[in-house]
Every structure is written in structure tokens, then in C-alpha cells.
Records
---
Amino acid sequence: MRVYGVTGWKNAGKTGLVERLVAEITGRGYTVSTVKHAHHSVDVDHPGTDSQRHRAAGASEVLLASGQRIALMQELRGAPEPKLDTLLSRLSPVDLVLIEGFKRERHPKIEAFRAEPGNPLIATDDDTVRAVASDTPLELDCPVFDLDDTAAIADFILEEVGL
């Protein structure tokens, strides 16, 4: 499965870039899935729903299915967070998986960068960052795209992964 990451510090524009890339790349006829890393507790369920009650009762997994979507919730219950490779193996086959976050993993990435938060560039110290999408001009030893030039960024990623 082809994977490409979007990395960057908080408020760098990662989620907006991933959202635009999914729309752009699927609009070109490719299938895309995403994996998003969260540093905080995440719950996609709501208190009082049947599925939440199943989890609260101790279920390890709850599969919720409807005519529109399927959601599989797995409780770690103290087990370590699964590695990225394990998470990727759970996905159905697609043309491309875009990964948001997972800075320390070794897959190829583009860094989303905004000057205003004042964070350092990741690209200068990480050889897995192949390009930077920035809101300000930068001189680097890798391609630099305008953060809002979604088509050019998509072109770059698709070429990188051979699509």
C-alpha cells in the first residue's frame, strides 16, 4: 500500500492540507484513506448510545454497522498504542493512504509549515520530509510549495508514490 505523510507542529495547517489533498486526489479518480494520530483521548461514541454502553460494559471491540458506514471501536484497556504498520494493516486496500501526524515514523512526508506559530522546521533535521508546504517563502534543500497550492502538492505526492 502506498503511504505518504503530512507532518508539522500544532496549528501548522496539517488537517486542512490533508482534507484538500483527499478531495483533490479522489477527484482525480484515485482511492484514498487516511490515518490521523491524536495526542489526546479520542472518543467517537456518545454517552448513552448502545455501542458506548457495550464498551463501558467491558467489550474489547464494538463494531457499529449501518447502511451508511461501519465503525469499529477497539479499547486498548492499558495495552500499548498500536504501531503505524499495525494500523495500516487494518485498512482495506486503496491507491494511497495519507498519514497525518506520526512525525517519528519513517515514511515519506511533506511538512505543513506556518510562520506565525514560530515553531522550527522539521524538514531541516528529518530526511523523511521530502518537501515543505509553507505560507511563507523558504530556501531549503527540498521542494517548497505554497501551503494553498493543493494541486501542485498533490502532483508531487502522486509522483513520489508512483501514481
---
Amino acid sequence: MEIRNLRAFVEVVRQGGFSRAAETVFATQSTVSKAVKQLETELGTPLLDRSGHRSTLTTAGEVVYRRAIRLLGERDSMLAELEDLRGLRRGTLRLGLPPVGSSTLFAPLFAAYRQRHPRVDIKLTEHGSDRLEEILRAGEIDLAASLLPVSEDFEWQGVRREPLVAILAEKHPLAGRDRLNLSDLRGEPLLLFETGFAINRIVLEACRREGFDPAVAARSSQIDFLVELAGAGLGIAFLPRLIAGRHGEAAVRRIVLDEPSTEWAIAIIWRRGAYLSHAARAWLALVREAAPQPA
């Protein structure tokens, strides 16, 4: 069973089609299609149902996809460990960071890391926390920043805890409050991040605990845009307190959300039991120095 065929199959599933998968693995669409077909022939069963407009996983395909992600991750860990054993000094730090909070929390660490390890290449991947966890499971990155709690598949090093802040227009009827509960926001339209941002999950799960599903007025991956929408009265946005005062010039009120289990707790995570390269361990050491308090 060839690794390149497994990689092609995984990317077809992840990217939602052969053409986008081909771009990801830097191959032609026909090459990717041939690789998947070879894998199906070798395993003696179809992995994709191609009858519709979009290929979907068969039952066998679901099993192979799940196992392939782990196999590819283990292969990458093996290569990283062998690289360290050979004494290669350069190395590569493959790090995933979410857009929310990264500039404030991690930008200063990059300068310190570069000064200590000038020959290490840093490959940065940016997505929401949920997407980063998927990429981390596949072994495409070594470390990621994500919100706690995380799956037992991961180990973690705490970075920071902050309460969430509700951001609303200055003229909003609730703008005079010192603190807000989610029950106060029943019936209010919310402004959320795009799918894949863990902060959405925190807010939505808290709303459901209060017994309601909120209306979502808009979604965006841009913090400043969400703050501006809140200032224009289109709805209520949510940010960690640390981040809330650093974005946007809109006329808004920032009110601490006094709600259990809505704390923004960010950590650096890695696959449980996975080998961490010297470059990755050096980043973790720097994080521990900058944020010695446990999260």
C-alpha cells in the first residue's frame, strides 16, 4: 500500500473533490484519480461513491479514511524523529494558530523564538481551532493553539484564560449593564465567527444550556468586521476580554459575560503520545516561560 495513494485519498475527502485535492498535493487531477483507483483495487472495495455530483465516502471508505489519517500522522512523526537522530540542526516548526488572539498572545513569541533558533524554519497554518485539531490529527502540523477542553487524543500546555465579553452597540437597551448572562440575550441576534471557530461552540452550547437556540445575524472570520457590525446594531458579538479592547473603532460597549463554562481558555496542543521534534519542544519551552501559570 503506497503512502502517496493514501495521501491522495485523504485529500480528496478533506478537500471535497479531486480537483482541489490535486492542487493540495501538487499533482494533476488524473494522477489523483488514478491513485485513488489503485487504492480501491488493492483493497478490493470501492471507497468513494461517485454516483452524485460530489463523491461521498462508502462504509469501507470511512474506515480507510479514519485509519489513513492516523497512518499518515505516524509516518510524519517517524520522519521527524529520524531527522533529530541524524542531528540535523535546521529543523522545521509546523505550527497552527487561530486568528482570534494570535497576534496578541503569540506574535511576541515568534521574535524570541527566531532569536534563539535562527536556523529553524517556521511553517504557520491559520484556521479556526476545530479545523486545526483535524489537521493536527492528520500529522500535518506538530502543534496547534486551541480552546480547552480538547479531545483526549491531545495533550496540552495552558497559555491563558480570559472571560468572554459581549460586544454591543452603545445605544442597545442592555448597554448599561456591568455584566450579562446569556439568558439576558434570549431573542437577540448574535454575530458569530465562521464555521470551525471553537468560540462559536462555547457560545452556542451555553445558549442551549439556557434552553434556547439563538438567531445568527451574520458570520465572519474578521474580528474588526464583527465589532463594526455590533456597533451598527446588527447583533451581539463575543470576544475574549484580552482581545476585545484591541479591535475596531466602532461605538460599542464591551460587557463581561457572567456565565459558567464560557471562559476562553487557550492552550498549545499536540497528539497524545506523538514524537515532538526539537523545534516543537523548543516552542513549548518558550510558551511555558511566557505563560508559567497552568490553564
---
Amino acid sequence: MGVIWRLTLEPVGADVAWSLLHRDGSAPTKAVIGGIVRDTRAEADATFALVPRPSADGRVDPTANVLTDPARELATAELLGARLLPPALRERLNGDGGHTVQIAARGWLANVPWDAITVNAGTDTRLIEKAILVSAMSPGIAATRARSAPPSHPGSPGLAIIDAGPAEDTMTGESAIYPGRLPAELVGPGGIDPGDVVAPGKYSMSAAEAAKALTEQEWSRLFYLGHVAGGRPEEPAAAALVFQRHGIRDLLTAGMWLAEPGRWPAPARVALIGGGSDDARFTEASGLPVAAINAGAGLVTCTRWALPTDRPQDAYLPATRLALAVYRAHRAERPIESLRAWQLDQLATWKEQATPESSPVYWAALTSYVAPEVARG
């Protein structure tokens, strides 16, 4: 089983309160230490600078970001690692291997690119190189969930819902991720497996039709790739998957999903790849990952921030390749480790020859929640 750590961090004014637990093999969980990091305003400002911001047309420019500048990205990773990783954890990570770190972070801390922060200043060794990382959810959420998806082989048929929103949304300025047609990289050879069912038609799925698709058979996986409407600090349950009905935006909010998990039952593995589908930045845990767990999922992979969409003229489609990496990982026997392998490959490319496509803007945006009863991997 290895060593499992749980690092909990909460912003308290300008400070950060934290605690660290660990379990070594089958031994009982033990409290290691806790404390307060004083005056983290510089870290918070640095984190806000990392998060990609949509422009007036709703698009995110991947080049206008600290994460795509190698020198600035490394300096920020060192700042965040030195201040937010407890010395006791850093010391153990620098020793033996086989570590899993569960990170429970709220507020601005949830937007920290945890995979990319450094363990040792001056060495460019990233946290993902030293440990398997997952996001931690309150055990009570899984313990009280409405349903639990039946176990199924991840290679058995899954449901892929891709770009289900309207072609143009005059209210939000959003447009289709893939105007015209889905790219061959996604639905051609090497893309989504022919045994999976892709949401029918071009911009043709409503939230009600998604419910029908989810209930018509037992799926092994749900892969959603599309727009996500962000929640609000006072109402995280307003976060939503964007569908369309008669060309008009149709939302499946986290609140609706939480209220009717049987109408939108989640399979064991769920991927929500869209604009900031993680909700940990809000104080209350009632967003899309929580809704998916409540509806039956044991594994949920989501994104910490809005991803830049691909430009059709580009030969390399980084957002599509990221989505496919998640898709393939969810089809693997050990999805967390499979996704980590892809992230490590991207990190190696970033270190060797940094390009916007290999930057942490993409691979560090991903985070996964695992229900307590689901085995590691």
C-alpha cells in the first residue's frame, strides 16, 4: 500500500492553517503535525496570476500566462513549494518511494498547481515526481452518497459526451469547442474507442437526453468534454455541465444532480473536462465532483481552471490531447498512475524544451478525487 499522506490546508485571512496525517502500510493513521503559514498574500497573488483568464470572447489564451514562461513558472513553483509543503513531508518524499499525497485544499489554495510545485528549491524536482497525487474529499460525502455504481471493467462500454452545448451562446459569448465537426484526433483511429457511445449528433444533447443516455444501460465510464458553467462562492451548486435544447443553453447544475442522482446516475469512473470543473475553491463542497460522487462515481477527474481551447489551424491540439490522456487513463486498470505517467512525460518535455503545449497550463490543471473505498491506482 505504501505511505499515504493527507495534507489539509485552509486559508485563514492572510494566513494558511494546515495539518498533516499519514498512514504507513496497514498501520493506523497518525497525526504528524500541524501549523500556520503566516502571511501568504504573496503566494495567493502568485496563484491568482497562474489561473488562465478568459478574454472578452470567452477564449483563454495559453500564451498569456505565468505557467507558459519557464523562468516565471519555476520561480512560482519554488515559492509555493517552499511555503506550502510542510518540511516533514518534504523530508520523507526525498527519502524512500511509494508515497501517495491526498491534498484537501480550499479557497485560493485549490488553484495551486500542486503537481508542478517543487519539493526542493534549486533542483526543479516537482511534487508529481515524488508522489502520486489525488484531491481529498470529506469522507462523509462518500459515506452518505445516494448510490454507488456497480463495479465494471473499465474497458467495457462507456459514454462520451462531447461538445454538447450550443454552437453559439449569445448570453455568455461561448461558442462550440469544435465548430464544424469533431477532430479526427478525437474520434478517428487512436481516439475514442469504437466500443464507446459518443453523444449523438452535432450540438444535439439536452440535459434530459443526457439523463436518458445515462439510465439506458450500465456504463463503465462517463467522459464529458465541453463547457462548464462556473459556480459562485455563495452558490457552488450553480456550477453546471452545459448542454443545449433547440439551440439554447441547457444546464445540468450540480444542485440538480445532487437532488436527483437517480436521474443522472454516474458510472464508476467520471471525467469532467471543461472550464474549472473542480469546485474546491469554494468553501462549501457541493459542486460537480461532489455531485458525481453522490450519484455513484468512485473516481472523478476534473480541471482546476478553464483550459485554453484548441485552435483549428494548429497541428498540435493540446487540449484535445489532454482530454484523450484522461480518457485513456480511465480505461486503464490503474487510472491514477496512468494519468500520472502522461503528466510526467509532459513535465519531461517542459523541462527539456518548454513550449506552451507542454506547459503546466495543461497537465497541472488536472486533479482526481477517489472515493475512500476505491483502491489506489
---
Amino acid sequence: MPDKYIVTLTPEERSELMQLTRRGTLSARKMKRAQILMLADKGHKDDTITQMLNAGISTVHRTRQKFVEGGVEFALNERPRPGGQKKLDSKAEALLIATACSDPPTGCCRWTMQLLAERLVELNVVESLSDETVRRTLGKKQLKPWLKEQWCFSTVGADFVWRMENVLDLYAQPYHPEEPVVCFDERPCQLIGETRVPRPPKPGRPQRYDHEYERKGTCNIFGFFQPLKSWRHLKVTEHRKSEDFGVCMQYLVDGLFPDAQQVHVVLDNLNTHTPAALYKTFKPDEALRILSRIQFHYTPKHGSWLNMVEFEFSALSRQCLNRRIPDIEKLRHEVTAWEQRRNRDKTTVNWLFTVDDARTKLSRLYPQTTLS
């Protein structure tokens, strides 16, 4: 039976189709339609084209028909399809977004897609609404009401700036053996024991340990870090009371830097990090003697990033403490080995942020002054 729609390409159309198929940038559908037109132009029947291109007979027939009715462009491209009617108009979308940004209903910790859809139905905005429509609408605005981020809202002002510049200026000073700069802080550590003996790794199988564990209590790690000498020291204690802080300061001036005239200590604003802690620990004469050889430099509140010992604690957590350690003696042994290796390798922090950088990059934090 002869084909009803005869394809006869002009030389220009034939050349255009050849170039399109050679570029390799056409979609699979357009490529197949172009090949159908070229084969039909050569006189091949629909059955033959179907077998050569592994295409459906209806596809070959429709491509011929579209070419005869509208030309090459019409045959290659899809007919415009009317989209479905939008479920939410601009006002309804605005209401949905405002609702998602408001407090959730009583008894719920957050808005869900289903709760938002039900709320719009309750408000007679729409008769019905699916969760998926709500999700797509919020997705266009990159709004995710089910997500929450913990953030630190610091109070920034003259006190923040003064403490920040005081620490940054201290870091910019050259090394002076009689006035060493030591960054100090502490971190809690949980002691955890195994309930079953872990199995060592084997080729093709990682190490295995049981999901159950036994809590063995908690302890504390004090950290001393002298960046200009690439030196650190960690002291493991059972707790972190004011007396422990006082003992650390005594150890700092008498045990670690006995020949220093004054030790500059960078630390945060923890309630135990005060000169009063030494008077709670020692007799007044001893407390005053220790404090006369120490000058405290407090980082701003919520500005612990200015304390370089935080980098050491971060490395310690990732390299040494990221496992189960059952008792304080084992912890002391592991922490000491980590400390010795870091000191031997002369690992330090190359601090580059200066006062001038702060005044340029953090200018928004500085209060407006009335006098020059």
C-alpha cells in the first residue's frame, strides 16, 4: 500500500537535516524524526524505516504527516501543549509563604506540607491542595520550614571590639621569651567503655564494634597552646572547678614558664576564668604572687574563634578523641602521645588576621563614634 504522505526534501532542507544529525546536540526525539525524514525522502517505506530506526509505525506516520502539513520545523518540534491550570495564584502563593514563615499550630513543633495544605483549605483559599503542590511552591522560594539552624546571636558593641583588638594586637607582637603568649581553654570529655570486644578489620571488611556502650563518667581536658613556639600541653583532670583553674595558673607560671616575667594568657569568659578563682584556691599571698605574673586577655563573648587553642581542641577531637576511651588513665596516655607528636612536628597556627583586617572586614561591628 503506497504511503499517504510523501516526503520530498529540497536540497536546502536535506543539507540542514544532515548538519543537525551530525552535530550530536539534538534530543533523541528530534534526532529520530530527522532520520525518518531523510529515509522517507530516499523513498523508503514506513515498514522499512520502522525496522531501520527501531521506531514505532505511528511515529513514522505522524512525522511524515507533520512534514507534509507544516514543513521541517513543524515535523521536528513538539506541538505546544497547554499546561495545567495553576492551583495557587500569586495571592495564594504569598499567603502560603507567609503561613510557612509564621509560628506552627499549637501542639506542633514545625509546619509540615500537610499542615500547610490543610491551613489553606481552612482559610477557603482553595477547595483542595496536595502536599506536593505545597512542596513545589515553597521550593521555588527556597523555603524549608522543616529545617532549623542553631545560631549564636552575639551582642556586638564597643566591648566586643575592645576585647577583639586587644587579642589581635597581642598576636601581632613578636616572640619575647620573658613575656610568652599562651592560649588557654578546656573541654569536657565523656569516658565510654565497650560492652563487647571490638573485632579488628580484615581485607574487605572494616573494623566492627557493638552499638551498645557503657558510660564511665566524665572528665576534663585543660589546654595550653603557645603558637609562636609551636608548643602545646594538655592536662586531664577529673573536673573543671575554680580550684582546677587556679592550679592550672599556678602550674603555668611555676611549672611551664618559671623564668618568665609575665605570662599573657588568652582565655574566654567562663565563670571560673577569673582572678577570684585563685583566691578560692590559695591563700591571699600565693594568689597575689601568681596573678602578679599573669596578664589575662579575654576574648569577646561569642568570640571564641579568637582563641587559637580552639584549633588544637578541634584537631584533638578529630585525631585522638573520636573513639571510645574507657578511663581517665587511658585518656591521659592517649592525649600525652598526641601532644608529644604535635610538639615534635612543630605544628602550629599561622595567624594572619590583624587589627587592620578587623577594621576593614568587620567595620560593621564597630560603634559609631562622635569624636575623631
